[in-house]
Protein 1
Amino acid sequence: MIEAMGCVDHPFFARSSIKALQAIPLLEEGAADALGFTDEELSLALASHNAEACHTNTVSALLARLDLSVADLQCGAQEPGDREVRMALVNSGEETTALHNNCSGKHAGFLALSKHLDAPASDYLDPDGAVQSLVRAAISDMCGMDAGSLTRGMDGCSAPTYRLPLRALGLAFARVVEPSGLEPKRRAACEQMVAAVAAHPILIAGSRGRLCTELSRVTKGRLFPKIGAEGIYAVGDRASGRALAVKIDDGGRRALHAVVVELLSRHEMIDEAEARALESWRQTELTNHAGLSVGRTEVVA
Amino acid sequence: MIEAMGCVDHPFFARSSIKALQAIPLLEEGAADALGFTDEELSLALASHNAEACHTNTVSALLARLDLSVADLQCGAQEPGDREVRMALVNSGEETTALHNNCSGKHAGFLALSKHLDAPASDYLDPDGAVQSLVRAAISDMCGMDAGSLTRGMDGCSAPTYRLPLRALGLAFARVVEPSGLEPKRRAACEQMVAAVAAHPILIAGSRGRLCTELSRVTKGRLFPKIGAEGIYAVGDRASGRALAVKIDDGGRRALHAVVVELLSRHEMIDEAEARALESWRQTELTNHAGLSVGRTEVVA
């Protein structure tokens, strides 16, 4: 570990930041290959998406190819995170469904793995079922932890989730972007995920207001980023093999983007030109309801 | 001061929690009387409302009586805070305007005072104009502070706002609910505001998901409550003349309601029956997108 600030050993629920770890078995077990996953579909399996058409259409098509449908998703309905998309949905009169849930791609990935393993589709979230057992093992291995010692909880999307210390999240992301020390199938899985996201930055998040998409795009896929609820962020740097893992203590998102970009800059995981392109995420002007400037957020050492 | 926890002397922007103080000149200067304010309109002048029909209709009618309109409000358009109201608005095709802004009643009150003072309506937010000078003086007096030493900022609704320490907010609320030591006109102003809110708890906030409305309703108007953005809450107790002022350090609302109800209970500002009626605000079950229970929030000593 290069540098630590604060409580890097205190475990917390990593939420969506570990989606790439949760998707490893989909690839490792040969399910993605056998089922003809495109890079777009793989990106959706790793995504916390905005429910734009590119997201829901891809997940929908994937489910159909699995002879499944929205009805098989157990993540629950969730309104699109993007305001424009949300308004369009309301105006269209279309109902909000599990497809719009930001995790629907992840769940479609679980269902694909379940099908490949010949496990009952309805059991894909069973913590001790075929799918989630593999997922738990992948998470613990990549984090350098003992699967049996992980504290489990239930995520917002109903998937099993685990408490991990920041140190472990950072280690896992470093391994994802520099997988040469991993077993061949896992190494290939990591390389494939990272390449897919680099090629499709919009698919892991969305076209508006999403730092994950911007970090990948601005760095031409060199950075492999993932946000998690409650102020979590992890970024792997393919060039250096280093990773950054951040958790905002109070769980608020307000500080998160600014801190991530500031730390990427300080640790030279982004160059000056990239830092300039990302400046609005690091130092944000605050405007009020009348559009007047009332202050700003900035990172203080 | 009965009890202090944390930084009670560190000033912060009190946001909407001081609306009652900002409304004092409206009453004290005789504007509310001269313009025939109803208790409903006075409640709206103190409100952070949900933009339900009872709110927007009252503000709209008040503006009309002043020979003014939505166009004279400088608070800016803001979507209704209540989801049902927001969805209904979108579905109706009606535009979001300054009338829906949670502060529109406060601004209508400022406009009423401006009219009474024969000041130009367009100047009602000028920090050194007739209206805001009186407002600043009322805030500083009630808080036991020197008007000249207040740090000023611009609120979300563009009104001038000031940094106050928690200690001062508590003092001001104690004076509002126990005004016997104040000058006669100010005492009458406080009594009138407190009575108006007691009679119309829905008007200061709204019918759904609003602790202010519930605290007033459950205590039959004995408590005089006001929330402020960034995790602020103040409550005056008419029975004891005591007040509680709270600020959540990280500005998050998640802890606010629970802490307020817990402290009201501990300090016997609500009795056991009232505490039971407010229990769901104090200890909240967390459910995920599928409606499954995933945890809870509770106050730990």
Note: Chain B touches chain A through 27 residues (CB under 8 Å).
Protein 2
Amino acid sequence: MYRNTKVLDVHGHVSVPQEANAPLVFMMGSNTPFAGLSGTAVSEEDFRAAAARHVSYLDERAIDVQVIGPRPFLMLGWMEDHLLPAWTSYVNDMIHQQCVFFPDRFLGACQLPQVSDAPDTTHCLAELDRCVRDHGFVAAYVSPDPAGRRTTPGMHEPYWFPLYERCQELDLPLIVHGTNSLDRRFRVVPHNYQLGFLTEQYLAGQFLSHGDVFERFPALRIVVCHCGGALNRFIPTDPHIAQKDLSANLFYDTCGYDEIFLSAAIRQRGVSQMCFGTEAPGSGRAVRPETGRTCDDLVPVIDSFDFLSEQDKITIFHENPARVVPGLAKHAASAGA
Amino acid sequence: MYRNTKVLDVHGHVSVPQEANAPLVFMMGSNTPFAGLSGTAVSEEDFRAAAARHVSYLDERAIDVQVIGPRPFLMLGWMEDHLLPAWTSYVNDMIHQQCVFFPDRFLGACQLPQVSDAPDTTHCLAELDRCVRDHGFVAAYVSPDPAGRRTTPGMHEPYWFPLYERCQELDLPLIVHGTNSLDRRFRVVPHNYQLGFLTEQYLAGQFLSHGDVFERFPALRIVVCHCGGALNRFIPTDPHIAQKDLSANLFYDTCGYDEIFLSAAIRQRGVSQMCFGTEAPGSGRAVRPETGRTCDDLVPVIDSFDFLSEQDKITIFHENPARVVPGLAKHAASAGA
Amino acid sequence: MYRNTKVLDVHGHVSVPQEANAPLVFMMGSNTPFAGLSGTAVSEEDFRAAAARHVSYLDERAIDVQVIGPRPFLMLGWMEDHLLPAWTSYVNDMIHQQCVFFPDRFLGACQLPQVSDAPDTTHCLAELDRCVRDHGFVAAYVSPDPAGRRTTPGMHEPYWFPLYERCQELDLPLIVHGTNSLDRRFRVVPHNYQLGFLTEQYLAGQFLSHGDVFERFPALRIVVCHCGGALNRFIPTDPHIAQKDLSANLFYDTCGYDEIFLSAAIRQRGVSQMCFGTEAPGSGRAVRPETGRTCDDLVPVIDSFDFLSEQDKITIFHENPARVVPGLAKHAASAGA
Amino acid sequence: MYRNTKVLDVHGHVSVPQEANAPLVFMMGSNTPFAGLSGTAVSEEDFRAAAARHVSYLDERAIDVQVIGPRPFLMLGWMEDHLLPAWTSYVNDMIHQQCVFFPDRFLGACQLPQVSDAPDTTHCLAELDRCVRDHGFVAAYVSPDPAGRRTTPGMHEPYWFPLYERCQELDLPLIVHGTNSLDRRFRVVPHNYQLGFLTEQYLAGQFLSHGDVFERFPALRIVVCHCGGALNRFIPTDPHIAQKDLSANLFYDTCGYDEIFLSAAIRQRGVSQMCFGTEAPGSGRAVRPETGRTCDDLVPVIDSFDFLSEQDKITIFHENPARVVPGLAKHAASAGA
Amino acid sequence: MYRNTKVLDVHGHVSVPQEANAPLVFMMGSNTPFAGLSGTAVSEEDFRAAAARHVSYLDERAIDVQVIGPRPFLMLGWMEDHLLPAWTSYVNDMIHQQCVFFPDRFLGACQLPQVSDAPDTTHCLAELDRCVRDHGFVAAYVSPDPAGRRTTPGMHEPYWFPLYERCQELDLPLIVHGTNSLDRRFRVVPHNYQLGFLTEQYLAGQFLSHGDVFERFPALRIVVCHCGGALNRFIPTDPHIAQKDLSANLFYDTCGYDEIFLSAAIRQRGVSQMCFGTEAPGSGRAVRPETGRTCDDLVPVIDSFDFLSEQDKITIFHENPARVVPGLAKHAASAGA
Amino acid sequence: MYRNTKVLDVHGHVSVPQEANAPLVFMMGSNTPFAGLSGTAVSEEDFRAAAARHVSYLDERAIDVQVIGPRPFLMLGWMEDHLLPAWTSYVNDMIHQQCVFFPDRFLGACQLPQVSDAPDTTHCLAELDRCVRDHGFVAAYVSPDPAGRRTTPGMHEPYWFPLYERCQELDLPLIVHGTNSLDRRFRVVPHNYQLGFLTEQYLAGQFLSHGDVFERFPALRIVVCHCGGALNRFIPTDPHIAQKDLSANLFYDTCGYDEIFLSAAIRQRGVSQMCFGTEAPGSGRAVRPETGRTCDDLVPVIDSFDFLSEQDKITIFHENPARVVPGLAKHAASAGA
């Protein structure tokens, strides 16, 4: 809660015992898309405990409700493509399970079985529909380049339109998050998916803003994670930046942990485009020396920004998330907030 | 025990809780070769329990000592090659741990970090040396085609010679076992690595017998698993079959579960070339309707073959394994067998 | 004849003077698909003599009628694809000529101008139709991987359905036989097409049995040559083997020369699925030391199998071939057998 | 001048009449590496006029001396590689000519004939040596990915070491600047080389900081342009950021035009690592609405940053450039500054 | 003029100041297809002066009217394909401008934005239509292999039919001229596009004469430049040469400068198929030692051929060009010739 | 004989019964390089008869001695490379046999087992040496692009130097003749190797004349067949033609059948560079309507050229062949000519 307003976090990832991912190894070894992929030895109790730890983590950071999707670095979109649907649906079922455990705290965002070299994104619609219809998910994650070889069409290309059309119909936002990259150069960097996150999220924002996606799909809303990946070095009126109004369509989360970076992002993107997002718990576990608290404890950080008014902060913490993700608004409403 | 002779099994795979493989998902997701790869949440107790179940499984099948290597279908040699050494050494450490738990029952055979498109097999020697020197392993597994795209040089080609030379020096046998295949056609078959096992093991046997490997490395011993993959349709004197004496070099295990197949294999290969091997527990869990026992309970099956003399059976159960795998002989000796 | 029953052989290949293949060299050199490809200098007399030698060869082996197709190792499906139709039709015309020379002894099975990377098998239908309509052929050969680079779709894939549909309409069986392989590793083995025969025939059987081809084409009959390439190491009830009734659709010939292998094949496949086939004359010219007769003299071999009843043998020698290849039945009937 | 201190700009590009690039079209059309490439119809007078306009541009922005290199978006490193040396030497000669015209104002930095798939950077040394020896150049530009297909080895890889070694010997800094990208997705963005600049400069910084280049070449100094491409979202002590002292080796220029971006960059990188750089004239021609002056007029912008002390500003404007580029220091000294 | 007959030249290329091509460098550097591509600093005056020099050049060579197209070696059809339309339309506009400057002397032939791997030539029609409709062009240039890697379909293949159909409708001839080649072997030869001109023009003539293009498009007329590239070593009745009447469709220009070559070409092709063409000014600037005049001064050369009658010469100089290029006939007519 | 001078023909191909090539089909089918490749059923008598027909053919055309090499269109250099040595040595042995049959009339030129993607031509030397040492061959054929995909290094590249060096040592000329091409476009043309002959022979001449081969190997002599493939359209002093003296090194044969073409070739190349060559019998079987004799009856054709003096003709018919091919000179000498 922030001043009696619910803090809504658009950027969270499912929490499961590490062991819950073990079936993927068996599936890849078997090269067989096990329907159900159930074989996990993890008990419901252990799943519940992991979810409960996640809730505590949110509690400690004053986050009321969080949209949880897949762990992007585990999407592994380069795997043999016939395995992707089974892996995706297994992950989505784990996300759903976590939401069911703590329905007041979590809302689901689905992984999609994205195949980079498919003719278009039609192959993703069945799983999207299943997650919305059966699990009540409120958003969908997409990777700009699931196979990690930069061969996926840019997010402005017709390849993506079937997905955009469905999301517009469903009034469901897309959450753009990088996944794995197979660029051989990256190997020198530990956890190098972070390099791909930055570059691909930045590029996705550029393709979306320079292309005509939002002319075609005016009601489509897209959130680019991690403040959009990278910031612009050009001034806002420079023609290097798309000179058009994207305010109803293109949003960014606040998931930058360095205060210098985050404050620059909010000021550059504008309060109206920023949705609170923390990825808690995730890549923000480093501890700020000055506070002794983990980086992803972002409510006090944003609260401390004196270039933001209180209303700005409420806009970021609550109103934007609720506007961009109608499921969050509905949830907040139904919870009597 | 078979008639007071220890039954020595050359073909076993490490038994760990499924969850022990979960770190691989994290490593692939991180695209980072974690040294140690320890992060597993599996307790030593759980590891020990898995090993103990394995021991019971052997007990129920009258197997005294088993050489255990990696699970071939989990070798995943197609993974990003910079990850292979970490995965390999993690697997080998689990194999070693299981041997340490039950030193009377298990001897280790190592996985190697095989890269199909390396200039040769020199890159495998460090891990081989480590396993022999530090863990006392007695054999090494090799996949004829680790990357699963049939691009690995044939087992008769100079690519393999550094490994052969080291094994000859160490008096250590190689165990040839198929691993994963990425042939797209295979997808229609569940657990389709079995198709690759058969074809690649058969081909390896052909390349080794028609090539000049054993002229170059006369003391090298190689065991081809699953009876060699496939049997020959030609008579022994047909020139389609290599007309030379391979009896000191090329061996096969008995790991065929169908009695028709296994008896044909023993008769075609000859008793002198057959080493007892069961893969217990592994792919032999189907239950024979006529006995109600799993297929991999091979001691009674072989014992029932009336075309074999008692000495033949002892040769297969004990003498050949001990001859081919000196570590088994030493172990048997030290155990006072 | 076997006990007054005609011995019907489903697996024979056309016999022509070696020189009859010379025009292919000119066609490949010219890179021009000569219609007719006639230019051969081989006289009809020489062709007839070759056919007559083939008849004698059958006589000496008690074979009454044989279905003759192309020589698989000369199908060379990797050639420039615009040349394939001319080569194929030339071969089929030679097959037909041989049938015409000895209509009581030979029935034709056609080669098809298979192109691995065509969109589907529609391109094969015209030649199939021509051979059936004009030449009265009774079966068709197919290679599971004509271009020899494992890029052909698996035999369970839609690529094959146009051919299956036509064969079902025509009540004409397909004979699955491996052809050439360009796997570089094979080079160490002389006559290495044999390696491809084994692996590709085995794989074809697996794809066909695990896929849904026979649900789609319930009247389609397919014979996999050389006993199916490789035998199964699993027991019949093991789920690694497709657990469904393929008895009306999937057949194997008896063309395994090693008695151990052949008897295992018959026992594993079952008498009901085995069609007599010898490839005489072909790869069975090695002489059995114990009899002094060539390996492909299979009537006495099968007759000697005491696990088979006399009726079993008649089923294999006559009834199954006649059932699977209706043209053989018709022929036998018309011949007053 | 800034408070009686010379303003030294590390990031400028050669100014020539557009027509001076026309010979490249002829060279590409001829597919012939014309030595000399002189054929240009541009007169020395026109060249001098272009240089003089450049000087005025600097004057209006209070820049005293500027290091000028090639125009990165015109490096076109994807061209047929045999043409690169001629193009490169032509560009370097134009840079030199501009320095000769105004020796008090310009110092040269060379283009290198970088070939992405060469075995290493040895092929760049001759031109580097020529420019230093004959033209007195003080720095060298490198593109992290000249061919624009992300196939160049990462800047931490041995491919780069010959160049690093020579630069260390020469005490000459490398200036890392993105060039052209051929990523098809970029096409939707006008002047899309800017996307490549950002991503490749950011990645270069990551590879350099996580790799061991500066352990190997402790005296090597590298300046990454445009503030390093992208900023970090992690806090400085987070292990995602290389935790080592790079202060003597890795520098960034100030060439970010958005004040939010630039101030964040200076604060994140630290004053000690920032070298004044403007690219004036270049991509900073957009006019700030609030001042009516072009973006690249950065002296007043930086002067306005109240988080910087006057000494900080002198460090950025003068001391860091002079320290990183010894040629600038020498020049300033000889000019009596 | 030749004996009071206008000399009509079908083979000329646009003359512009070299600097007029400079915008291409910027477009390639920007990777952005600038509509208009105007940015050139070349003044209309300079353009006019270049055109005037071209007129004088024609005057000195007795050429009255010339069809001018693009400079083939500057077509650079290998460039990023999204840039081709802008480059093409820029070139065509320069051609048009030259025609407008001297409407009595020049008629336009357009460049087309040919993409080798497009599904067919439909993508070229819009620019063709624009040039005919808006600029009154009378012919179109095509490169048999614009991308220079020999991957374009042969000129007899359906890929080309949309273009052929449109040209037949418009009664507009196609001028076949080689462009750039990227064959790495060519690099040893300066101006190596000439090698590609010869080989590709020769091949185009072969494909067109052996294929069925003119059966499909009987009114289509095609001129192959440089006398068709190479001459035939076979006699006219040899079946290696297409034995059919191509006289209404397939023409050649006279643009061979060596008298031996040119006279052989005219005699081999026949007067009826030869259209006067000089490429003046272009590759014919070498000076004949015996006359002191440039090679491309072809009127006196042809006039000197005593195997030609005066009518033959008029046929070549005037009648054939007028017949093949109706725009030339119309132009001549309107000019009162 | 031409006026009492022996007519020496540098361009002939071995004559064998078509059936003699049949073993190649078996070798390709077997994918096995049969040493000896003898299996041919062609009798020595038939071989001798074919050779005798060849002799008569020469007699009828007044040719005294002919250098015979392989049939270029049957070199099939695209075949699996491990088969090339066996095919090559089989062909060379047939050439030798023909020389032995008629030692007064034939001298051998060898085929080489050229592999386009070998590191260099060292792999050809053993067969060259064998043919010279054991068979007394006097020349060697080379294809500029044996694999027919234009991937062979140009004839000026270091790839070729080992072969050039050996030929210089042996004082043995190379005969450059095109072979097969796999350019898909060629398929529309029957016997389309002729297209490759023309283009590759022309290109080879260009590479050799513009490169520095003859500076490196000043005593090397090369004959390019079919008058060099294509003629030059430039005048001799044009810089498009290499301006250097190649008269001691680069020669052409007279094998152009069209009189227009052949006379142009002789005049363009110069008498000093032309060696009599007919390819009789080969591609010159078309009958000249005006004489009723086949095209390859070139002695009367050349004799009829009135631009040649009698001495010129003797130079072409005898002196040049003898100078370029010392084996011919020696042969003529020993024969008392």
Note: The first strand of chain F starts at residue 8 and ends at 13.
